[in-house]
TrEMBL record:
Source organism per UniProt: Paraburkholderia piptadeniae
Sorted UniProt keywords: Membrane, Transmembrane, Transmembrane helix
Name of the protein: DUF2964 family protein
Keyword tRNA processing attributed: no
Residue spans of biased composition, Basic residues class: 79-88
Stretch list, region Disordered: 65-88
Transmembrane segments: 38-58
Basic and acidic residues: bias regions: 67-78
Record lineage: Bacteria, Pseudomonadati, Pseudomonadota, Betaproteobacteria, Burkholderiales
Length: 88
């Protein structure tokens, strides 16, 4: 569970990077600064990719899919979560 919380924090930081890129792109567009516009576009892309990567549900995040001694395996093998996909 701790791993998921860290990923949420990193996804939040990635969103702020994307928002900063939006602001930089708008600033560059208003003052005709091509370098700032493209730097903002790159920051937007990095922020979006970072957020999507951090919030993607991987098969090892599901209960019972990690090795028994791994610290991420904090739920028992008989516990069933109805809100998680079961195709993994």
């Amino acid at each position: 569970m701790v791993r998921m919380e860290l990923r949420v924090v990193l996804a939040t930081l990635a969103i702020f990077v994307a928002l900063g890129g939006i602001g930089l792109s708008i600033h560059g567009s208003l003052y005709y600064l091509d370098r700032e516009v493209w730097t903002g576009v790159i920051a937007i892309a990095i922020g979006i990719v970072g957020c999507v990567t951090m919030l993607t549900l991987w098969p090892r995040d599901l209960p019972g899919k990690t090795p028994p001694d791994h610290p991420a395996d904090d739920s028992g093998p008989h516990e069933h979560h109805h809100h998680l996909p079961s195709q993994f």
